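Please decode residue identities from the backbone states below.
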């Protein structure tokens, strides 16, 4: 994914290098949002590029066994026990919350839906649990009350790179300090499906506006279906007091004005 490439570029900008880059075969997930190809980067920097169908393939595990650390960033497949135990020092991953808050899925939409005032990115050592491993470091991101998924997604990407750049000297010098997560403070967020973006006009207008911001691009978007069954995706909207020139949705406590939509 684009995020993985940005982190790789951040590593090289610090003057460090990678021994190996692992990516999917060219024919896998060609239409996936953020999908990038790393051939040009690998060629320019003379770094080995291994293409696999799955991170748990024996071919991948054999190659990973020669490494000290493995970063898993922007990778949608779940690494099994053999992968986690293959590198000499371990496997490091990123999660777009301040763990142990927000373990699980759909971190950016849930951050907005839960009206958090601060979030961040956590670099941690992967273990057999879901986002439960010890923390290496975190990057904190204060949030404005009107932030949307597009902006937060970009800020999270930038925080990933900043965190990699900041931690890398300690990683290279083998002086990382791992801090166990406090399970008593953990929260787990479930995955979300496109149909979870349906706007409920029986709810409050503030909830609807928040949903629009939470699932706008690069996510599938909030939507409503009219009496004829036609679906409209709402990318941007705002709460208003009086009807204007733009289309609106009526709620029990106000109006939602559509600023950008797609039928």
């Amino acid at each position: 994914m684009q995020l993985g490439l940005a982190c790789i570029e951040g590593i090289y900008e610090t003057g460090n290098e990678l021994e190996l880059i692992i990516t999917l075969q060219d024919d896998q997930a060609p239409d996936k949002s953020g999908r990038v190809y790393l051939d040009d980067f690998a060629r320019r920097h003379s770094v080995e590029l291994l293409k696999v169908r799955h991170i748990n393939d024996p071919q991948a595990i054999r190659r990973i066994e020669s490494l000290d650390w493995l970063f898993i960033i922007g990778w949608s497949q779940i690494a099994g026990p053999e992968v986690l135990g293959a590198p000499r020092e371990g496997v490091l991953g990123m999660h777009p919350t301040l763990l142990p808050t927000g373990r699980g899925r759909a971190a950016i939409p849930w951050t907005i839906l839960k009206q958090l005032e601060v979030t961040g990115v956590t670099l941690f050592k992967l273990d057999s649990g879901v986002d439960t491993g010890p923390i290496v470091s975190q990057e904190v991101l204060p949030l404005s009350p009107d932030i949307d998924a597009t902006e937060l997604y970009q800020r999270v990407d930038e925080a990933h790179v900043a965190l990699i750049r900041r931690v890398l000297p300690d990683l290279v010098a083998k002086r990382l300090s791992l801090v166990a997560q406090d399970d008593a403070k953990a929260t787990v967020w479930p995955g979300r499906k496109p149909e979870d973006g349906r706007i409920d006009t029986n709810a409050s207008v503030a909830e609807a506006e928040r949903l629009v911001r939470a699932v706008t691009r690069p996510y599938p978007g909030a939507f409503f279906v009219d009496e004829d069954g036609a679906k409209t995706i709402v990318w941007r909207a705002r709460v208003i007091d009086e009807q204007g020139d733009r289309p609106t949705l009526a709620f029990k406590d106000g109006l939602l004005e559509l600023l950008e939509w797609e039928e």
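Observation: The helical segments are 2-13, 39-45, 58-64, 81-84, 107-113, 149-172, 205-214.
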